[in-house]
Amino acid sequence: MNKMVILGIETSCDETSIGILKDGRIAANLVATQEKIHTPYGGVVPELASRAHLLYIDALFLKAMEKASIAPGDIDAIGVTNSPGLKGSLIIGVSFACGLATALGIPLYMVNHLYAHIASSFLDPEMSFPAVGLVVSGGHTTFFHMNGPVDFKVAGETVDDACGETFDKVGRMLGLDFPGGPNVEREALKGDENRIRFPVPLLSPGSLDFSFSGLKTSVLYYSRKNGPGRNVADICAGFQKAVGDVLEEKARRALVKYRPRSMIVGGGVIQNGYIRNRLRKVASEKGVRLFIPPVDLCMDNGAMVALMTYFLAVAGAPPSPKKISVIPT
Asked: Which of 101, 202, 250, 314 has the least C-beta neighbours within 10 A?
């Protein structure tokens, strides 16, 4: 990798993060979480999220520079998430990036949040193209087909609730704390995944799109009818198995259709050990190398934005205008 210092800024939802890529390695990746802010409401409150970003971002930037042992003048380019995400949260990050890039007189790149999740694995020297990418997060469940690090084509996406969103909603139905994903996984370890059979929504044959709304509703009806307090662990285990069945089958379809050399997965839900093992199984079955980023790069973070920015710059992508209007409406 070229010797460059890239600053990555991530404020798409409820985590403020600054990452610094320095001479081909991640020199800093600081994240300020908002979990305590949103837990009382059982989900992310957009207005509170944007206010927290405004509170954290400047101090986080200064700490990241100190950790990476750089000064503002050492930064060669800035990348910032401008989509998709909560509009108010995105405005904070993009405003900060535009002001900093203008003051320093350096290029600014607008980065797609989902592409950045996939870019988390691009540092692995064994990763090769063509590849299939899968982002499984709180707001998105999306397949990509890629012939290069900046060549993303959507191959399938959710038509209703995202996978992580469904985990959180199921957790809330069962009285578990927010965020629901880790708590559902924890309860599932104590349950029998075959005791309660929930539907596995696969849509039409060959489809790479996702639908989790019906599965969520099935859990709701079951818990209302049977009382969630008596068998939370089994409900969680059965629900998690249904999600795993969907992701495994969709991954199998994508690998058969595109015949890639690599499969790259990213997003917060990929922290779930059960889901990771189901994806490892199908990749091994099809003889495809599977790349999963370290846990700290699965959640929203600035380092992944810096990585995507580096590949955009190297590919010769034109810098973005230093204007707030670059956030899609």
From this structure: 314
H/E element, 177: none
**Sign of the four-CA dihedral 86, 82, 266, 161:** positive
Measured CA to CA, the distance from residue 113 to residue 94 in angstroms comes to 13
Inter-residue contact 283 to 290 (CB < 8 Å)? yes
Query: What is the three-class DSSP state of 119?
Result: helix
- The pLDDT tens digits for 67-91 are 999 999 999 999 999 999 999 999 9
Alpha-carbon distance of 149 to 167, in angstroms, equals: 30
Rounded average pLDDT over 152-162: 97
pTM greater than the 0.90 cutoff: yes
In a 3-state reduction of DSSP, which class is residue 29? strand
Angle between helices 232-258 and 180-188 (to 10 degrees): 100
What CATH number has the domain bearing residue 276?
Answer: 3.30.420.40
Rounded to whole angstroms, how far apart are CA atoms 193 and 231?
Answer: 12
The count of domains in the chain is 2
